Amino acid sequence: MMPLLNVERLSKSFGTHQVLKTIDLTVSAGDVTCIVGPSGSGKSTLLRCLNYLEVPTSGVIYLEGEPVGVRWRGNKLFRMSFNELSVQRQKMGMVFQGFHLFPHKTALENIIEAPMIVKGKSRQQVTEEALLLLDKVGLRNRADYYPRQLSGGQQQRVAIARSLAMQPTLMLFDEPTSALDPELVGEVLAVMRQLAEEGMTMVVVTHEMSFARDVADHLVFMDSGVIVEAGHPRDVLSNPQHSRTRSFLARVL
Ligand code: ADP
Ligand code: MG
Predict the structure, then answer these.
(1) Residue of the nearest CA to atom 19 in ligand 1?
(2) Is residue 18 domain-resident?
(3) Which CATH number do you get for residue 118?
(4) Considering its fold, how many domains does the chain have in total?
(5) What residue ranges are annotated as transmembrane (predicted)?
(6) In a domain, 13, yes or no
(7) Which residues line ligand 1 (CB under 6 A)?
């Protein structure tokens, strides 16, 4: 079966600084892939390349067999138009460390904005869908609250619901709990765990090793722009093969 996401020899440099070094990564539909590694190892850059928020220096990312951000013409790759790219990006929901909600819109309005504008659905239809999503993240009774009236954990759950409203094929999470007070981390991880159980394909950059151990199908350890080691979390965590993995795990476990 064709993988949902296939990263082939992805490299990214900023000036002379090569941040990603020929990364290969495959994600099957329904899989949860957790990416861990020290700060500065290139995790966010990798995630941002996946949906072309960063333009790779070389290499190709395939989503459902289609190259992301580029088109083959003959044997050459050309950048696709912004409209084409927007359609591809809609397939990849992204949740960041900060919640990035519109501060002047309620939770419900935050969720319905994009599907209404981008997908051209009616307000009534997207509102019904949004209320179901708020239910899913446990915030049905906060629909009319503004972000400032919500805790960080609640805001992040709204941000997840907002991403889901676009019916993505793949969800990307970049340290979604890192900005939260410790007591709020669990409620966000619980929503993510439920999403995983429902079969959502997810790529999650996280420092939450227990989440990675319990939920991930695939654990990737990155350091200095390379995938040092990858495999089932049980194997990587209990029997790391590389000294860099071992010293990282010794610090975080
Ligand atoms: P991580 O998410 O693992 O902490 P990042 O992907 O954010 O790592 O960063 C990897 C490296 O790339 C860091 O050295 C960072 O300073 C550098 N970097 C990231 N984004 C940029 C950018 N836009 N311009 C220049 N350097 C960048
Ligand atoms: Mg990062």
Answers:
(1) 45
(2) no
(3) 3.40.50.300
(4) 1
(5) none
(6) no
(7) 14, 19, 37, 39-45
